[in-house]
Design goal:
This protein is an alpha+beta fold. The chain has two domains: about 5-45, Arc Repressor Mutant, subunit A; about 60-140, Alpha-Beta Plaits (2-Layer Sandwich), CATH 3.30.70. The protein contains five helices and four strands. The longest helix has 13 residues, at about 35-45.
Length: about 150
């Protein structure tokens, strides 16, 4: 079931995506609602799953996570149970910040964040090299990140 979002809901979502610490009073003022009506809408958006989580985005460099690595993974065959097992394995790997099952020449695209190449090697040995269903993987090291956002256009 798809939730119907009106213009005010979309305004609320756009504001919260930029600053989810805004007070309800200020948010209500910005979208021209009474504070109780605004609070009710935000609660509905959270309970319906439109707002999945309220998180803090940290500067990974402060914690020594200096390398962003993109990994293309090709499995030996296209089989649902193998893909599911690989996704579960990537869920458990703290180095993996994003895992996408994709179409095309590769089966998965991983975003891996590590402090250095030694840590990446540990991840590769533990989670990729010993996977009997993984045909091959390719490592792309990010030289810099030009854009990063969690914002969704609503």
């Amino acid at each position: 079931m798809k939730l119907q979002l009106d213009r005010t809901d979309r305004q609320i979502l756009n504001i919260l995506q930029c600053n989810n610490r805004i007070s309800n009073l200020q948010l209500a003022e910005e979208v021209s609602l009474s504070p109780p009506a605004c609070l009710k809408r935000v609660k509905r958006l959270r309970e319906s799953g439109v707002i999945e989580a309220d998180v803090a985005i940290l500067d990974a460099r402060i914690f020594g996570k200096m390398l962003n690595i993109i990994v293309e993974v090709e499995m030996i065959r296209d089989q649902a149970d193998l893909a599911d097992a690989f996704m579960r394995k990537m869920q458990q790997a703290n180095e993996v910040t994003q895992c996408y099952q994709v179409t095309g020449e590769v089966d998965f695209l991983l975003v891996v964040m590590v402090p250095d190449m030694e840590a990446y090697e540990v991840f590769v040995r533990r989670d990729l090299s010993n996977d009997p269903y993984l045909r091959k993987f390719r490592t792309l090291i990010s030289m810099r990140r030009d854009k990063f956002t969690t914002r969704v256009e609503v």
